[in-house]
Amino acid sequence: MIEQIQTFLANTPVTDYRMIILLISVGIFVGFINTIAGMATALSYGLFMMMGLPINVANGTTRVGVLLQFITTSAIFKKKGYLDVKTGWKVGIPVGLGAIFGALLAAVLKVKVIEIVMAILLPIICLLLFIDKSRLAKINTESKNSGLLIFLIFTVIGVYGGFTHSGVGLLIMFGSFFFLGLDMIRSNAIKQFAVTIYTPLALAVFIIYGQVNWTIALIYAIGNIIGGIAGSYASIKGGEKFIKVFVTVVIVIMSTFLILKQFR
Question: Residue 147, exposed/middle/buried by CB under 10 A (0-12, 13-18, 19+)?
């Protein structure tokens, strides 16, 4: 069964109506999950690689849909009053600076290195859900260098985001939640804006290295936009508790998958 799917994906032209439907459908699903939580980009990596793209090209190709999706979702959160643009720039600038370096790493490093880094970092992200936010916020308030510390934290997050988009949304949300004291809905809004800022920088690196399949990227982006719109309204309507539960489930599933993958 799996071999038949792989054969179909590897040998069917991208312009075939079945592939178009598949790409848009997966794009909708990934766009929805990524808007509310994150991690779903790993699914697009898997799909694109089964279609014959190397992971670095799959990584670059996903960025087109990511950019168009998060431009759309940022506008929705702004319209609904949940996006503070000033705070968004405070997060987006260091994330963007880090993303340039991270994208350069992703463009030249071997596939195995990318997979190992993700397998190590994602379980750590999961642990952040259990940190006492109020205690952490108190420490940050008492620290004279909290502004610099926050800048450095989001720069490191940007390095990861430039390296691989899968999971960076969660890191930005956690950073905004724990270090800026925002609720999960507004942290999610900041995520949308920050990703919109850093993605063009990372995408530019992949374009320079010729690591974007534009046909796949643009078809897939249609689904990303649709899923992003649906995810934005679900996130706002569902509230903070809904986002926390959603994020927890996604992290556990994706962390387990990536860890087990290393032992196959």
Answer: exposed
Q: What is the pLDDT of residues 16-56, one digit of tens each?
A: 999 999 999 999 999 998 888 776 777 888 889 888 888 88
Question: In angstroms, what CA-CA distances link 105 with 118, 130, 145, 167, 258?
Answer: 14, 31, 29, 17, 20
pTM over 0.90: no
User: Closest Cα partner for 211 from 130, 111, 117?
Assistant: 111
Which tens digits make up the pLDDT trace of 198-240? 888 889 988 998 999 999 999 999 999 999 999 999 888 877 6
Residues sharing a CB contact under 8 Å with residue 204, sequence separation 6 or more, in sequence order:
none
| Torsion angle of C-alpha atoms 9, 104, 214, 192, degrees rounded to 10 | 100
DSSP string over 154-192: HHHHHHHHHH-STTHHHHHHHHHHHHS---HHHHHHHHH
* CA-to-CA separations, 123 to 129, 188, 209, in angstroms, rounded: 11, 20, 31
User: How far apart are the C-alpha atoms of 104 and 20, rounded to whole Å?
Assistant: 30
Q: Are 186 and 74 in contact (CB under 8 A)?
A: no
CB burial string 101-120: b at 16+ within 10 A, e below: bbbbbbbeeeeeebbebbbe
